[in-house]
């Protein structure tokens, strides 16, 4: 490969890198600007950084309530989600039972439905079960909607485990539950990291189900709260940027913490196939 081709490739890569990073950088610098400075200088960093936008975002935006709700909802929903994904994934990937393939294809079929298509049906179902304005209702809906993808990931991984390991454990007297918890699950830690971060990001950013099921202000999630803030108060772009930066802190921290598991799981998936 000659130098001119390398230069073109690097130029294109740098361009796409800047295009990907700049929106976040723009929101970051905007959150430290006064409104009049943002109007006159919308693209460059501020000459005088201020913290007032963050104070207004927290005081008027009720972000502490929304963060509290997320800290209640998401960890609980992740427990339900992981239990379903791990047990169903192991059943589809390693056990043999009637209609296994048909049921697995049904799980995959559930992945193609967009949220907006299911929203009204789920809302009517939750209304009949008295699960609207209820944390439990949203947790069950999140689990039902996001679990098929995690089940598919875990089933694919468990199906690649050497069958000799499972047979050896059975010969030693281990039951199905013990094989799952003592043998299969420790090997699957990298894949768990992947489905955890995917589910966390999906639940954190989810809007349609939260909008329908959580109608009380004090029960809103962060994403729903931000959407309602923009619609209710018409807050300026500087405060909106501060709200977005505050709401992005925890997802960024989760991504950084689980990044090594994502890399390990990606290599494991590539090797196992």
Automatic annotation (TrEMBL):
It comes from the Bacteria. Keywords: Cell membrane, Membrane, Sugar transport, Transmembrane, Transmembrane helix, Transport. PROSITE patterns: ABC_TM1 (PS50928). GO terms for cellular component: plasma membrane. It is a multi-pass membrane protein. It is found in: Cell membrane. One of its GO terms (biological process) is transmembrane transport. Residues 67-258 form the ABC transmembrane type-1 domain. The chain crosses the membrane at residues 7-29, 71-91, 103-123, 135-158, 179-204, 237-258. Its main location: membrane. InterPro entries: MetI-like (IPR000515), MetI-like_sf (IPR035906). Belongs to the binding-protein-dependent transport system permease family. This is Multiple sugar transport system permease protein/raffinose/stachyose/melibiose transport system permease protein. The lineage of its organism: Bacteria, Bacillati, Bacillota, Hydrogenispora.
């Amino acid at each position: 490969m000659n130098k001119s081709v390398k230069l073109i490739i690097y130029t294109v890569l740098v361009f796409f890198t800047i295009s990907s990073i700049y929106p976040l950088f723009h929101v970051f610098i905007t959150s430290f600007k006064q409104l009049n400075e943002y109007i006159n200088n919308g693209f460059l960093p501020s000459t005088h950084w201020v913290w007032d936008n963050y104070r207004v975002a927290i005081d008027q935006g009720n972000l502490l309530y929304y963060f509290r709700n997320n800290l209640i909802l998401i960890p609980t929903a992740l427990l339900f989600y992981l239990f379903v994904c791990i047990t169903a994934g192991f059943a589809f990937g390693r056990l043999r039972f009637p209609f296994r393939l048909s049921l697995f294809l049904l799980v995959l079929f559930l992945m193609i439905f967009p949220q907006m298509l299911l929203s009204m049906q789920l809302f009517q179902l939750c209304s009949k079960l008295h699960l609207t304005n209820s944390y439990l209702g949203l947790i069950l809906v999140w689990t039902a909607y996001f679990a098929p993808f995690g089940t598919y990931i875990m089933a694919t991984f468990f199906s690649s485990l050497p069958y000799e390991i499972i047979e050896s454990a059975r010969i030693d007297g281990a039951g199905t539950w013990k094989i799952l918890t003592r043998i299969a699950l420790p090997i699957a830690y990298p894949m768990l990291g992947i489905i955890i971060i995917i589910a966390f990001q999906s639940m954190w950013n989810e809007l349609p189900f939260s909008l329908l099921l959580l109608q009380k202000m004090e029960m809103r999630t962060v994403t729903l709260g931000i959407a309602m803030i923009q619609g209710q108060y018409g807050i300026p772009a500087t405060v909106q940027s501060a709200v977005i930066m505050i709401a992005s802190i925890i997802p960024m921290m989760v991504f950084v913490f689980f990044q090594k598991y994502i890399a390990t799981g990606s290599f494991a998936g590539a090797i196992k196939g």
